[in-house]
Amino acid sequence: MNSLLGPASVDDLPILVEAENFVKAALDGLTAHIAILDETGTIIHVNQAWRQFAENNGFTDSHYGVGTNYLAVCDRAATPDALAVAQGIRRVLASSLPQFDLEYPCHSPAERRWFVIQITTFEWRDYRRLIVAHQNVTEIKRVQVELQNSKQRLETILNNLVDGIITFDRFGWIESVNPAGAAIFGYRPDELIGQSIGCLVPDLENQADEHALADFVEKIGRLGDEVVGRRRDGTPFPIYFAVSQLRLDDRRLFTGVVQDFTERKYLEGQLLEKQRLNMQLDNERELRELKNRFISMMSHELRTPLGAIRLANSMLKAYGDRMTEQEKRESYEVIETQTEHLAEMINDVMTISKSDFTGAEFYPETIDLETYCRDIIEEIQLAYRMTCCIEFSGTGRRVEADVDVKLLRRAITNLLTNAIKYSPEGAPISVELACEDDTAIIRVSDQGIGIPEDDQRRLFEPFHRASNVGQIQGTGLGLAITRQAVERHGGSISVESQVGVGTTFSVRLPIKRIS
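Below the sequence we write its predicted structure tokens.
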């Protein structure tokens, strides 16, 4: 059997044996399965890893293949990998190839394995030797396969996304784009590689400076925004564009997510148009309802005073020469009272109409609200011949506010007359003036019939009256006028009421100062 390092003289034999033992020990320390071949391709030595692999895989040769011609074994196997190895050995022996490498599978029933064979040659004392090393790369191969599978899965996902995914560098040059991203703009993916992101997003067209590009990306951010995209034919269209920044191998890259908003904008336009039409229909419906309520109110409210006027007039015509002065005066008073009632209704209709369509005239002046409220209360009590009891609670200070005297008087008078109208005769009514920070609060409270909860939501709509008013006369315009007057002053009005207990209206107005 050939020596690992070749023959030697008697004098050199101890040195050669020592060197050969050193080489064998070194080979045994390696994890690769190593065989040393002579110039004919015959195995002259194998290391410990080779022997261990042979034992683990049922190889019965007690010499582990030493003395066997490796070339002949490969030729007999006749598999593509075995023939490639035999060809590689011959080329290395012929010095036409300095080194031969091949990755091949070597699967067992229990596991799948991969090896890399490496064949090199060396010379020692004029003898050529070949090193055949089989390295188990199963773990590396498994990681490679997993990485490849992961890459394929990721590519499959990206290629099937309906959203566009575009990757570009810090200067805006496109490095990758999925099919959906290219299709959104009318390109093939390969046509966009190396192009500027500005050809797709005009806002980035002039962002040659990497800092300007970074500023744009920071402004858009991960949440994205609607921007203008540009198709291949140059037509602009709306897109959603979100960008995130990442670092890969010490490089800064940007990943953009793109969605075509053309269909969405169309649907939004359709929705807005539908909403506009619905609003028009609602307005027309409200106008019809308002018209019907107006006609119903006028036909009902006009009939009573007109009937009273007609009756009084008929009495005067038929029996005037036989009526006493007292009876005539009473008839004239009926005519006068009902005429005033008609005039009041007409004024209410004119007021609400003017406020709704042309804007109420507004002439503010600075007044003391406390004195103002007291004057209105005195006027109401005189008008009702002192038959109602109105209690006033003020602040005891001068509360200055800029108000239109006539407009606000109409509002407060409406609240007081309603309180009197819907309360039992002689029932107490209270008016309170209070201040909170820069706001004056005027509260008008009664102990009348109250307002049902269902009616409170529509209480300030024109011509709407509570369902429990019975035969009490009214146009349904007073509270609508009151609300408009209060809001014209930059204030607000609210109501609290309980049926059978009473009602409180609270008017909030901005004030200038308290002294």
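The two ends are 125 Å apart (CA to CA).
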